[in-house]
From TrEMBL:
It comes from Microbacterium sediminis. SUPFAM superfamilies: MFS general substrate transporter. One of its GO terms (cellular component) is plasma membrane. It comes from the Bacteria. It is a multi-pass membrane protein. It is found in: Cell inner membrane. Its main location: membrane. Keywords: Cell membrane, Membrane, Transmembrane, Transmembrane helix, Transport. PROSITE patterns: MFS. This is MFS transporter. GO terms for molecular function: transmembrane transporter activity.
């Protein structure tokens, strides 16, 4: 008989802090991730503002993310292969060093007045690629740092880190640029990144198990062959793509702030922050997630809640279309406060549901995938994470342009709920997945 997993002993609804209190190496890495990631968000916002100040072009700003997409995907896949062949501590340190040097170069150029749009593109691409390698490698480390029984708690803590970074970083970056300057903002990131080096440098050696091929096509084929025989991992990828394609309205939020709900950039900031607030709150109250055994069903139900919240957000925009709760004209200076509050609540719901799904997905990845393949599967996951939101931006932008801003969210929410139900019904192994007997 299988004995109960130790993680089921945590009975509080609040976040399980045992990965931090019982595993000092993970705690140092987590603190480094939080501070280093916050610095990275400062730079992302500063680079966008800097690009707009140099060019006055929204397209030039949008091209920053687009230009870094392919390098990020390639680096994520290759980084996963590196993480399955070399000591993961060394791989992460090397990639983080590239990020630090490129950020320091950006700060130096800013202090000397040598920044132009091509430097911003080039260094953003380098940062994006290096961070993909760091991300794939750090995710593959977690089970060895905390033990498989505390992987769900570690995933919730990492989700909280991401939420805090996204919630505070862009806003703080904008404030720092406005009050001080671009060079100061970039320099703060350079300093904050030192904490990530401390977390990585003090890790023990983390050599992967098994005998992966030398990074290259053979290693990639090995990883894809494993994925072909891993129906549960494939299904969670497919479900995540569905969620991000039809439930990622970030691309229309600037227009929503001006044309639909009013209030302009301030409203857009609130709507964007609401998603991150939901992520943080769901992490704070994630204590019971570690006891959930049927994680496949948990992923599906969380994504369906995500879809329902997306639908409700769309209906809020539809209500604005009919002028509900509006006291006068709606524009950048006049806001429909009641509907803005409702929209923020529903977007917070999407952030919370997505984070719960992410906890289960990361737990499944790190418990069911053998250590020798974990880096490569994390690399493939980066492709999913990078591609889904961008397809979603195209979906939302196209339908909002052809019809109205409420249409893609209402349609997307219904599509998510229906497709996830069909996918769950079609996959018996995913429905039956048991965390006490994890199978990929």
């Amino acid at each position: 008989m299988t004995s109960p997993a130790p993680h089921q002993e945590h009975r509080s609804a609040l976040i399980d802090l045992r990965p931090l209190t019982q595993h000092p190496a993970f705690a140092r890495l987590w603190i480094g991730n939080l501070l280093g990631g916050l610095g990275g968000q400062l730079t992302i916002m500063a680079v966008m503002l800097h690009m707009y100040a140099l060019t006055g072009s929204d397209m030039a700003v949008a091209m920053i993310a687009f230009a870094g997409l392919l390098p990020m995907i390639v680096a994520g896949l290759y980084g996963g292969m590196l993480a399955d062949f070399f000591d993961r501590r060394i791989v992460a340190l090397s990639a983080a060093s590239v990020t630090w040097v490129s950020t320091a170069m950006l700060a130096l150029l800013a202090w000397t007045g040598g920044v132009n749009e091509w430097w911003l593109y080039a260094l953003s691409i380098v940062n994006s690629a290096a961070n993909s390698i760091v991300g794939a490698t750090k995710s593959a480390m977690t089970p060895k740092l905390v033990g498989k029984e505390l992987v769900p708690a570690a995933a919730a803590l990492n989700g909280m880190t991401m939420g805090l970074m996204v919630m505070a970083g862009p806003a703080l970056g904008g404030v720092l640029v406005a009050l001080f300057s671009y060079p100061v903002t970039y320099t703060i990131d350079v300093i904050l990144m030192l904490s990530l080096f401390l977390g990585l440098w003090t890790l023990p050696s983390l050599k992967p198990e098994g005998s992966a091929a030398t990074p290259g096509l053979k290693s990639l084929r090995q990883g894809l062959a494993f994925l072909q025989g891993a129906p549960n991992i494939r299904m969670q990828y497919v479900m995540d793509i569905v969620a991000m394609t039809f439930g990622h309205p970030v691309a229309i939020l600037p227009a929503v702030g001006v044309l639909v709900l009013g209030g302009g950039e301030i409203t857009t900031g609130f709507l964007t922050a609401a998603i991150a607030i939901g992520t943080v709150l769901s992490s704070v109250f994630s204590g019971r997630l570690g006891a959930v055994r049927r994680q496949g069903v948990g992923i599906a139900r969380a994504i369906q809640v995500f879809g329902v919240c997306t639908l409700l957000f769309g209906l809020t925009l539809l209500a604005a279309r009919f002028g509900w709760f509006a006291d006068g004209p709606i524009d950048a200076q006049h806001a429909n406060v009641t509907l803005i509050v409702l929209a923020c609540i529903f977007l917070a719901g999407t952030g919370a549901a997505d984070n719960v799904s992410a906890v289960f997905r990361q737990t499944m990845m790190q418990q069911a995938v053998p250590d020798e393949f974990r880096g490569r599967l994390q690399g493939v996951f980066i492709v999913v994470v990078a591609g889904g939101p961008r397809v979603g931006a195209l979906y939302y932008g196209t339908l909002a342009t052809l019809f109205a801003h409420w249409v893609p969210a209402v349609a997307g929410g219904m599509i998510i709920v229906a497709l996830i139900a069909l996918l769950l019904r079609a996959s018996t192994t995913f429905r039956a997945y048991d965390s006490l007997e994890p199978r990929p």
